[in-house]
Each structure stands twice: as C-alpha cells, then as structure tokens.
Write a sequence for this structure.
DNA sequence: GCGACCGTTCGGTCCGCGCCGAACGACCGC
DNA sequence: GCGGTCGTTCGGCGCGGACCGAACGGTCGC
C-alpha cells in the first residue's frame, strides 16, 4: 500500500539523522562531500570556517550517525559520504526541502474550513474521492504500483473503457502517474488516464463543478451509482 | 553536470530543517502528522508522551521552520503538515534514510589499511585515480554520459590518441562503460577504452604495479606530469 | 633520529535547548 | 455569568552541544 504508516522506530532514526545534520557546520560539510570527492579534516575545517578540533568533533558525530566513512591514508584521513544511500538522502532533502521559512501568510482568504470531498487538481481528480478512486483502481489491479513506476494494466484499460474513458498514450507524459494529495497526503491518479477520467466524469455529469469555486466538485446521484456499478465503490 | 554544486544557502536551510526534526519529540510529531490528518496540540502531546506545554514549544518550532500549518477552529488548534512538499520531504527522508547506525564492522580481515590510490579492476583502472580520470574525461566531453549509454566522442578518441591510447571497436564489449567503484562510490572508466588506457599507462611507465600487491598501482613522476599535460589534472 | 604536519582527545566556557509545573488568556457549554 | 477545557507563555532546572586552545600520538620527509 502506498501509505507507509510510520512506526515508532522510524521517528527515532529520523531524529538521529536530522540531529546529525542539525548543526550548520555539519550540514555544510555534508553538502561539500555531496560532490562525491573525499576531503581531509583540515580541508573541511577551513572550508566551513572552524578550528580543526571542532571539525573533528563534527566529523565524529557524522561518522557515528553513519553518514560518513573515513579512509586512512598515511597521515591524512579522507572523509566521504558513507554510501550511495546517504548521497540520495541528501539530494532528496536538498531538492525537496525548500519550504521557504513561511513568510507570514496567515490572513488571506481563509480556507473553506473543511477539505473538499472532491476537487480538481490541475486536470485530474483529487480530494477524498480522488484518493478513493485511486485506491480502488489499485485494488482491482487496474493500476499497478511498482517500486519505480506506476502502470495501467490491460484490465485497467478495460475497466476505464467500460466507464467511457478512452485512454491513448501521449508523448508528453506517462499514462498514469501518482500525485500526492496535500489534504489527504495520499496518492490520487494523475497522468493521461487521470485527466481523461476527470473529463469523462464531467461530461457524463457524474461530477459537477461548483458555481462559486470552480475547482470544487460535487458528486451527482448518477455519479454515485455509476461508480458503485462500475468500480464497486460505496460512497457517502 | 552530475555534481549539483550545492551553494551555501542550501546548507543553511538544510540545517534549519534538520534542526527542526532533530528532537525525537518533533520527529515523532511529524511522523504522526504524516498520516495527513490534523491533530490538536493536546492529542499530539499525549501521543508522544510530553506535557502540553512542552508540545506547544515543539509545535512552535515546527511552525517557525515552515513544516507545519495551524488552523484555528474554536478553542482548538489543528496542526497539520504545511503542504505536500513537506510530506514529500518526510516521505523521502523516511524511505531514503536507513543507513543502519553503522553496525560495528571494524575487526574482520583488516583491509590493506588504505584504499589504494590507484588500482586495477579486472583490466582497467580504478581507485581514486580511475575516478579522477573518468570525471575529467566527462568534463572534457571525451566521454559523454547519456541516460542509457556512455559513448566515446570523436574528441575523446583524439584525446586518448594524444596519450598514445589506440582504441578499436571490439565485437564483444562496448567501447566505453562505467564501472562503479566500491571504494569511491563513483564511476570509473571500463570497457575497451578503459582497458587500452590502463595498458598504455603501464607501457609508458606512468603507472607501475606494486611488487607485493600486483593490483595496486603507483603513479610515477612522469605519469603525474603526463596526465597534467594531456588532461589538465592536478594530482597529489 | 628530528622537525613538520595532520588529526584526535581533553579541559573549560558558554549558550541553547528540552523538560516541567504554574499561571494566564481564549473559548465553549450551560 | 461560571467552571471546564485548550493552548500558550513564563520561570527554573539541568544537560548536552558547540567552540576554542593546548597537548598528544602518527606519519612523512630528510
């Protein structure tokens, strides 16, 4: 299943790694080492602007955390990232992190209190309904979630076809893709198939756009019945 | 370019986010919120086992770091992850982090103390020197790294030719290939070109095999100068 | 061997942080 | 209005971490 359900140990390990990177000096060292090259302690100390003894302590902590490896060569000790996993982790953090420090945006238009049951996300379906559909399609093996890619199965093409959704492979984007729902923090269905699905549901009047907030969607009676008939989903 | 070249600000922001997650309590809160549901401060306090006042401080820090959003509703304050980016970041960290805490591996058969500066890997060059050569050749566009394949460019044939390395296409294997260096966590050059390169360097006495450990190589003075002259590499 | 250098360890200072209990303001239900 | 609940802020305690300079063991070059 897509939702991991983090267990206690995860949080502990997470905090360990985070603590190892919490000091600006250590974060700078890690970034420096991210180039893949090895560096001596003194080089790193000079680069981040601390005394060699201080750098040594930081390097020790990074070693303890398992983020670094040291290689002794003569009177030098070359530090490098422990392995590819660590490099991947840092890269992911660096690419994914930038939440700007939340410059005050609190007033604004005030969110509609409750997350919409169904809403559109770009050109596909999101919200609780989007997640429910995604999960059901996975359950039916219409969409198959692999370690790297998500694919639409033969059966999936048939299931969608039965609902009047015609999917044609496009050059520009994958047939199916998972999109993380901010409100649900679960995946819903994106990609060409996701877009065609939304189109069809709107055409068939299974979904209708709200007059006041065009991104919000309402499930009609026929839509509820249609989804139950075609996919076996019970909706409130 | 493969190496992203992280800048100073990156490291700072990295340490900020890391510091926000460094405390076990905060990491636990973040994991709890990763389910996507909002929680009140007291709920979170109870869940992670601290006093409400303590939780409040932690929540304040997470807010400051931009990882959380709060939504006031009556006398309750519902905390949730700030946005999908944060969820993605946490997910990535949780999936990518597991560097096991470095289970003690010190005893063992004792590696030859220091990783060889240069060593042969089958029939081509590995170790730090192998990686340096590989990187430099990529930099010079002598070797071009594509998404699927690695190719030797026209210029690359010329560069190698200038060093006396004659490469001829063979039936049995690709001209160039990348070989992952276990000690360096970087690629070095393999394939026909890699083999011919090592041959030539040995013939020219730029490299010499160690008497005691034949796979280890020593870079001679002339080798150092030759590599600087032909490839512009500065070696220690 | 003798210096020169590299890196770690040690002692010491200081700041910040995590934790709590108590007090305070905000809000709900009655 | 009045208690009860929720959450924050405030003092206060104690620990751990960050930093440095000085001292110590290893290694290289001569």
């Amino acid at each position: 299943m897509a939702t991991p359900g983090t267990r206690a140990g995860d949080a502990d390990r997470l905090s360990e790694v985070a603590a190892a990177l919490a000091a600006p000096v250590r974060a700078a060292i890690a970034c420096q080492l991210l180039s893949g090259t090895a560096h001596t302690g003194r080089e790193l100390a000079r680069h981040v602007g601390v005394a060699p003894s201080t750098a040594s302590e930081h390097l020790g902590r990074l070693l303890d955390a398992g983020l670094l490896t040291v290689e002794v060569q003569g009177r030098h000790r070359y530090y490098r990232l422990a392995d590819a996993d660590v490099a991947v982790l840092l890269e992911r953090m660096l690419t994914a992190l930038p939440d700007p420090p939340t410059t005050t945006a609190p007033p604004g238009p005030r969110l509609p209190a409750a997350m919409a049951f169904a809403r559109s996300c770009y050109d596909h379906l999101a919200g609780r309904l989007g997640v429910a559909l995604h999960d059901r399609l996975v359950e039916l093996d219409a969409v198959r979630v692999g370690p790297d890619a998500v694919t639409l199965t033969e059966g999936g093409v048939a299931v969608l076809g039965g609902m009047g959704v015609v999917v044609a492979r496009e050059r520009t984007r994958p047939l199916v893709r998972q999109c993380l729902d901010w409100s649900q923090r679960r995946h819903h269905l994106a990609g060409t198939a996701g877009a065609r699905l939304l189109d069809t549901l709107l055409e068939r009047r299974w979904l209708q756009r709200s007059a006041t907030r065009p991104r919000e969607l309402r499930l009609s009676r026929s839509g509820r019945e249609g989804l139950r008939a075609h996919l076996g989903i019970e909706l409130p």
In short: DSSP finds nine helices and eleven strands in chain A. Confidence is low (pLDDT under 50) at residues 1-5, 100-115 of chain A. Residues 40-42, 52-53, 55-57, 59-60, 74-77 of chain A lie near DNA strand C (CB under 10 Å from a C1'). Chain A has two domains: 15-96, 118-231.
